[in-house]
Amino acid sequence: MKQIADILPDLVALRRDIHAHPELGFREHRTAARIADELRKIGIKVHEGIGTTGLVGVLKGKRDGDRSVGLRADMDALPIHEATNLPWASKTPGTFHGCGHDGHVAMLLGAARVLAADPDFAGTVNFIFQPAEEGQGGARVMIEEGLFDRFPCDRVYALHNWPGLPAGTISTRPGPIMGAADKFRITLTGKGGHAAIPQDSPDAILAAASLIQQLNTIVARDVPPYAAAVLSVTEIHGGHAHNVIPAEVMVGGTIRTFDPSVQDRIEDRMRAMIKGIEASFEVEGALAYDRYYPATINDPQAATDALEVAATIARAELAPEPAPTSEDFSFMLQQRPGAYIWLGQGTPDHPSPLHNPQYDFNDTVMETGIRLHVALARHWLA
């Protein structure tokens, strides 16, 4: 589209400006202000302060129609120090756009420009700019503050760059596409005492070592072989001196699943193992288990439609399997039918994975992302 080619330089500059000024979840004040200003310039009505820093731009088509579609872009950065040394590198130490949300914002603003310039569709497009995707549940907060009550969406789509796919390739799948994310903290409490007299002190470190071994059998022995799951112990904290048996040890980690029944089974087995550890080592165990993001499950028809639309503008592939990483767009898909879509950005110049200090969004795929947003909106509101 010539129109997109004409606006790309501005959008790339905007993307790099946002990249240079990253903001963490629920603090995206500068980013949100820039987005609101860009939307107002093209005549789109803006509603701000939804979920603290979230905002929605509303564009009605010039033809009558009751249908509506939501297009979502996340805005927040990560608490990671950037190591790209690019001219537009983060100016905020310890914070940078290591997941490409700056590119997501630019692509959705590009789609807003194209659709506002020619609103030849029947119904309403809601451009949803969401805060705090990175582990803080910004989507859930926007929903709790009336997102879909105020801005009805019959369908909702989100586009995420994907370094593991060739640049410009579009991929999604019906059903699960991203995992549920749970985190756990297990506290084992003994009595503490002198390391030379272990018989007088229940050993929380020994109990933790045994528990960690047992936890790593859950996926292999308690999850059916046809179901996917990941359990990783990532933390263990306890003790402060070579000659003291500590009174308390903490074991923490994460679990990723795609099926709530598997999620339930894993938590139940963890609780049973902790009871066994209590009896075996004479310690007390406490489990804090947080199911902070559900699995991202695409509506089958919405995902099929997305692949058909994508095939008209780029290479489209059915994703063979879901990813174990998580995404809070899952909360939106629990409320409305829709699909989460991957846009490949992998090239020899952009090999870095997401959440890597060397990562940068690949600006060459921006046009494909804009075209996909526009095509999805026009398809649903035809």
From TrEMBL:
Swiss-Prot/TrEMBL cofactor(s): Mn(2+)
A molecular function (GO) term: metal ion binding
SUPFAM superfamilies registered for this protein in UniProt: Bacterial exopeptidase dimerisation domain, Zn-dependent exopeptidases
Enzyme Commission code: 3.5.1.32
Enzymatic class: hydrolase
Record keywords: Hydrolase, Manganese, Metal-binding
Cofactor note text: The Mn(2+) ion enhances activity.
Residues annotated to bind Mn(2+): 99, 101, 134, 160, 355
Pfam family, one: Peptidase_M20
A biological process from GO: diaminopimelate biosynthetic process
Source superkingdom: Bacteria
Transmembrane annotation, as ranges: none
Signal peptide residue numbers: none
Domain Peptidase M20 dimerisation: 183-275
Protein name: Hippurate hydrolase
Species whose genome carries this gene: Novosphingobium hassiacum
